[in-house]
Design goal:
Layout lengths: L1 E6 L3 E7 L4 E8 L6 H14 L10 E6 L2 H15 L4 E2 L21 H14 L3 E6 L2 E7 L5 E8 L1 H11 L19 H28 L4 E5 L15 E2 L3 H15 L3
Parallel strand pairs: 1-4, 4-5, 6-9, 9-10
Antiparallel strand pairs: 1-2, 2-3, 6-7, 7-8
Helix pairs in contact: 1-2, 3-6
Subunit structure: Homodimer.
Protein name: Type III pantothenate kinase
Family: Belongs to the type III pantothenate kinase family.
Protein backbone atom coordinates (compact mmCIF):
# COMPACT_ATOMS: atom_id res chain seq x y z
CA UNK A 1 0.00 0.00 0.00
CA UNK A 2 0.97 3.63 -0.52
CA UNK A 3 1.15 6.19 2.27
CA UNK A 4 0.32 9.71 1.03
CA UNK A 5 1.30 12.59 3.33
CA UNK A 6 0.16 16.17 2.75
CA UNK A 7 1.88 18.48 5.23
CA UNK A 8 0.42 21.98 5.32
CA UNK A 9 1.23 24.93 7.52
CA UNK A 10 -1.66 24.16 9.87
CA UNK A 11 -2.48 20.46 9.51
CA UNK A 12 -0.84 17.32 8.16
CA UNK A 13 -3.01 14.70 6.45
CA UNK A 14 -2.10 11.01 6.13
CA UNK A 15 -3.97 8.72 3.75
CA UNK A 16 -3.52 5.06 2.81
CA UNK A 17 -4.07 3.99 -0.81
CA UNK A 18 -4.50 0.27 -1.43
CA UNK A 19 -4.27 0.38 -5.23
CA UNK A 20 -7.94 1.01 -5.88
CA UNK A 21 -9.22 3.31 -3.12
CA UNK A 22 -8.14 5.37 -0.13
CA UNK A 23 -8.77 3.10 2.83
CA UNK A 24 -8.51 5.77 5.52
CA UNK A 25 -7.50 9.39 6.06
CA UNK A 26 -6.30 11.06 9.28
CA UNK A 27 -5.36 14.60 10.22
CA UNK A 28 -2.94 15.93 12.84
CA UNK A 29 -1.72 19.44 13.69
CA UNK A 30 1.55 20.32 11.94
CA UNK A 31 4.39 20.62 14.46
CA UNK A 32 8.06 20.57 13.45
CA UNK A 33 8.99 19.30 16.92
CA UNK A 34 7.04 16.05 16.47
CA UNK A 35 9.45 13.14 16.07
CA UNK A 36 9.20 10.17 13.74
CA UNK A 37 8.54 7.94 16.74
CA UNK A 38 5.61 10.12 17.83
CA UNK A 39 4.18 10.06 14.32
CA UNK A 40 4.40 6.27 14.26
CA UNK A 41 2.72 5.73 17.65
CA UNK A 42 -0.16 7.97 16.56
CA UNK A 43 -0.44 6.58 13.03
CA UNK A 44 -0.09 2.89 13.93
CA UNK A 45 -2.85 3.20 16.54
CA UNK A 46 -5.25 4.72 14.02
CA UNK A 47 -4.32 2.16 11.37
CA UNK A 48 -5.05 -0.66 13.81
CA UNK A 49 -8.49 0.80 14.53
CA UNK A 50 -9.20 0.61 10.79
CA UNK A 51 -7.95 -2.96 10.58
CA UNK A 52 -4.84 -1.95 8.68
CA UNK A 53 -1.88 -3.90 9.95
CA UNK A 54 1.31 -1.88 10.10
CA UNK A 55 3.98 -4.47 9.50
CA UNK A 56 4.81 -4.88 5.82
CA UNK A 57 1.59 -3.46 4.38
CA UNK A 58 2.85 0.04 3.57
CA UNK A 59 5.76 -0.35 1.18
CA UNK A 60 5.84 3.07 -0.51
CA UNK A 61 5.26 6.71 0.42
CA UNK A 62 5.01 10.19 -1.08
CA UNK A 63 5.17 13.53 0.73
CA UNK A 64 4.06 17.03 -0.15
CA UNK A 65 5.04 19.66 2.40
CA UNK A 66 4.76 23.43 2.62
CA UNK A 67 6.52 23.24 6.00
CA UNK A 68 10.17 22.36 5.19
CA UNK A 69 11.18 21.81 8.83
CA UNK A 70 8.73 18.91 9.11
CA UNK A 71 9.99 16.94 6.12
CA UNK A 72 13.02 15.43 7.87
CA UNK A 73 11.00 13.61 10.53
CA UNK A 74 8.45 12.46 7.95
CA UNK A 75 11.31 10.98 5.92
CA UNK A 76 12.60 9.24 9.03
CA UNK A 77 9.11 7.87 9.72
CA UNK A 78 8.99 6.28 6.27
CA UNK A 79 12.57 4.98 6.40
CA UNK A 80 12.49 3.61 9.93
CA UNK A 81 9.00 2.17 10.22
CA UNK A 82 7.91 1.42 6.66
CA UNK A 83 11.31 0.58 5.20
CA UNK A 84 10.88 2.85 2.19
CA UNK A 85 12.40 5.99 0.76
CA UNK A 86 9.57 8.47 0.19
CA UNK A 87 9.18 10.61 -2.88
CA UNK A 88 9.05 14.29 -1.95
CA UNK A 89 7.18 16.58 -4.34
CA UNK A 90 9.32 19.48 -5.46
CA UNK A 91 12.63 17.64 -5.08
CA UNK A 92 14.76 16.94 -8.18
CA UNK A 93 14.10 13.20 -8.08
CA UNK A 94 10.31 13.66 -8.15
CA UNK A 95 9.14 14.29 -11.69
CA UNK A 96 5.90 15.91 -12.84
CA UNK A 97 3.81 14.98 -15.88
CA UNK A 98 4.12 18.57 -17.14
CA UNK A 99 6.71 21.03 -15.84
CA UNK A 100 5.44 24.37 -14.46
CA UNK A 101 5.94 27.43 -16.65
CA UNK A 102 6.87 30.26 -14.30
CA UNK A 103 9.66 32.82 -13.96
CA UNK A 104 13.13 31.29 -13.93
CA UNK A 105 14.32 30.58 -10.40
CA UNK A 106 10.80 30.53 -8.96
CA UNK A 107 10.00 27.74 -6.53
CA UNK A 108 6.37 26.65 -6.79
CA UNK A 109 4.78 25.31 -3.62
CA UNK A 110 4.40 21.52 -3.75
CA UNK A 111 0.74 21.77 -2.74
CA UNK A 112 0.07 23.86 -5.82
CA UNK A 113 1.87 21.40 -8.08
CA UNK A 114 -0.10 18.49 -6.62
CA UNK A 115 -3.44 20.29 -7.03
CA UNK A 116 -2.53 21.17 -10.62
CA UNK A 117 -1.83 17.53 -11.52
CA UNK A 118 -5.03 16.31 -9.86
CA UNK A 119 -7.21 19.07 -11.26
CA UNK A 120 -5.97 18.51 -14.81
CA UNK A 121 -6.49 14.75 -14.61
CA UNK A 122 -10.09 15.18 -13.47
CA UNK A 123 -11.17 18.32 -15.31
CA UNK A 124 -8.70 19.02 -18.11
CA UNK A 125 -6.93 22.29 -18.84
CA UNK A 126 -8.04 25.92 -18.77
CA UNK A 127 -8.69 25.44 -15.08
CA UNK A 128 -8.54 27.50 -11.89
CA UNK A 129 -8.01 25.59 -8.64
CA UNK A 130 -9.03 27.52 -5.51
CA UNK A 131 -7.56 26.05 -2.31
CA UNK A 132 -8.89 27.31 1.03
CA UNK A 133 -5.92 26.59 3.29
CA UNK A 134 -3.75 28.67 5.62
CA UNK A 135 -3.51 30.86 2.53
CA UNK A 136 -6.24 31.04 -0.09
CA UNK A 137 -4.53 30.17 -3.36
CA UNK A 138 -5.63 30.29 -6.99
CA UNK A 139 -3.71 27.98 -9.33
CA UNK A 140 -4.02 28.48 -13.08
CA UNK A 141 -3.68 25.33 -15.22
CA UNK A 142 -2.95 25.67 -18.94
CA UNK A 143 -4.49 23.60 -21.72
CA UNK A 144 -1.69 20.99 -21.52
CA UNK A 145 -1.79 20.64 -17.72
CA UNK A 146 1.08 22.99 -16.89
CA UNK A 147 0.93 25.21 -13.82
CA UNK A 148 1.42 28.73 -15.20
CA UNK A 149 1.04 30.87 -12.09
CA UNK A 150 -1.69 32.06 -9.81
CA UNK A 151 -2.65 34.19 -6.84
CA UNK A 152 -1.95 33.96 -3.10
CA UNK A 153 -4.26 35.70 -0.62
CA UNK A 154 -4.41 35.46 3.19
CA UNK A 155 -6.45 32.49 4.35
CA UNK A 156 -9.84 32.89 6.02
CA UNK A 157 -8.78 31.76 9.48
CA UNK A 158 -5.52 33.68 9.21
CA UNK A 159 -7.47 36.86 8.48
CA UNK A 160 -9.74 36.27 11.49
CA UNK A 161 -6.74 35.65 13.74
CA UNK A 162 -4.98 38.79 12.51
CA UNK A 163 -8.12 40.86 13.12
CA UNK A 164 -8.45 39.49 16.65
CA UNK A 165 -4.77 40.11 17.46
CA UNK A 166 -4.72 43.64 16.05
CA UNK A 167 -8.00 44.72 17.64
CA UNK A 168 -8.13 43.39 21.18
CA UNK A 169 -11.73 44.49 21.69
CA UNK A 170 -12.95 42.31 18.83
CA UNK A 171 -13.71 38.67 19.73
CA UNK A 172 -12.41 35.63 17.89
CA UNK A 173 -15.30 34.13 15.91
CA UNK A 174 -15.95 30.99 13.91
CA UNK A 175 -16.36 31.14 10.17
CA UNK A 176 -19.97 30.58 9.10
CA UNK A 177 -22.43 31.81 6.51
CA UNK A 178 -24.37 34.71 8.10
CA UNK A 179 -28.12 35.05 7.67
CA UNK A 180 -27.69 38.45 6.07
CA UNK A 181 -25.04 40.95 5.07
CA UNK A 182 -25.89 43.56 7.72
CA UNK A 183 -24.82 42.31 11.13
CA UNK A 184 -26.72 43.48 14.22
CA UNK A 185 -24.01 42.55 16.74
CA UNK A 186 -20.22 42.43 16.75
CA UNK A 187 -19.90 38.71 16.06
CA UNK A 188 -22.38 38.88 13.17
CA UNK A 189 -20.59 41.91 11.71
CA UNK A 190 -17.23 40.12 11.72
CA UNK A 191 -18.72 36.93 10.28
CA UNK A 192 -20.42 38.92 7.54
CA UNK A 193 -17.24 40.82 6.70
CA UNK A 194 -15.17 37.67 6.44
CA UNK A 195 -17.73 35.52 4.63
CA UNK A 196 -18.98 38.05 2.09
CA UNK A 197 -15.50 39.52 1.77
CA UNK A 198 -14.10 36.17 0.66
CA UNK A 199 -17.05 35.54 -1.66
CA UNK A 200 -16.17 38.85 -3.32
CA UNK A 201 -12.47 38.00 -3.33
CA UNK A 202 -13.05 34.69 -5.13
CA UNK A 203 -15.51 36.21 -7.61
CA UNK A 204 -13.21 39.14 -8.36
CA UNK A 205 -9.99 37.16 -8.79
CA UNK A 206 -11.65 34.49 -10.94
CA UNK A 207 -13.19 37.20 -13.12
CA UNK A 208 -9.82 38.92 -13.59
CA UNK A 209 -8.04 35.65 -14.41
CA UNK A 210 -10.67 34.86 -17.04
CA UNK A 211 -10.31 38.33 -18.53
CA UNK A 212 -6.52 38.02 -18.62
CA UNK A 213 -6.65 34.56 -20.18
CA UNK A 214 -9.47 35.64 -22.52
CA UNK A 215 -11.12 32.22 -22.56
CA UNK A 216 -13.67 30.18 -20.58
CA UNK A 217 -12.11 28.54 -17.53
CA UNK A 218 -13.52 25.97 -15.15
CA UNK A 219 -13.18 26.65 -11.43
CA UNK A 220 -12.84 23.92 -8.81
CA UNK A 221 -12.34 24.32 -5.07
CA UNK A 222 -10.63 22.29 -2.39
CA UNK A 223 -9.63 22.74 1.24
CA UNK A 224 -11.57 22.46 4.48
CA UNK A 225 -13.63 25.63 4.03
CA UNK A 226 -14.48 25.12 0.35
CA UNK A 227 -17.96 23.61 1.00
CA UNK A 228 -18.87 26.60 3.19
CA UNK A 229 -18.22 29.05 0.36
CA UNK A 230 -20.14 26.85 -2.08
CA UNK A 231 -23.44 27.21 -0.19
CA UNK A 232 -26.08 28.60 -2.52
CA UNK A 233 -23.59 30.16 -4.93
CA UNK A 234 -22.34 29.37 -8.39
CA UNK A 235 -18.70 30.10 -7.59
CA UNK A 236 -17.32 26.67 -8.42
CA UNK A 237 -17.96 24.02 -11.02
CA UNK A 238 -17.10 21.42 -8.40
CA UNK A 239 -15.75 21.07 -4.86
CA UNK A 240 -13.11 18.32 -4.51
CA UNK A 241 -12.33 17.38 -0.92
CA UNK A 242 -9.75 14.72 -1.87
CA UNK A 243 -7.96 16.66 -4.61
CA UNK A 244 -4.52 16.78 -2.97
CA UNK A 245 -4.45 13.08 -2.08
CA UNK A 246 -5.55 12.21 -5.61
CA UNK A 247 -2.71 14.35 -6.97
CA UNK A 248 -0.14 12.68 -4.72
CA UNK A 249 -1.21 9.27 -5.98
CA UNK A 250 -1.00 10.42 -9.60
CA UNK A 251 2.49 11.87 -9.13
CA UNK A 252 3.65 8.69 -7.42
CA UNK A 253 2.29 6.54 -10.27
CA UNK A 254 3.95 8.82 -12.83
CA UNK A 255 7.35 8.47 -11.14
CA UNK A 256 6.93 4.75 -10.69
CA UNK A 257 6.33 4.52 -14.43
CA UNK A 258 9.63 6.37 -14.94
CA UNK A 259 11.40 3.85 -12.73
CA UNK A 260 11.90 6.28 -9.83
Amino acid sequence: MLLCIDCGNTNTVFSVWDGSTFRATWRIATDHRRTADEYFVWLSTLMALKGLGVGGQIREAIISSTAPRVVFNLRVLCNRYFDCRPLVVGKPDCGLPVAPRVDEGTTVGPDRLVNTVAGFERHGGDLIVVDFGTATTFDVVDTDGAYIGGVIAPGVNLSLEALHMAAAALPHVDVTKPQGVIGTNTVACIQSGVYWGYIGLVEGIVRQIRMERDRPMKVIATGGLAPLFDLGFDLFDKVEDDLTMHGLRLIFDYNKGLGA
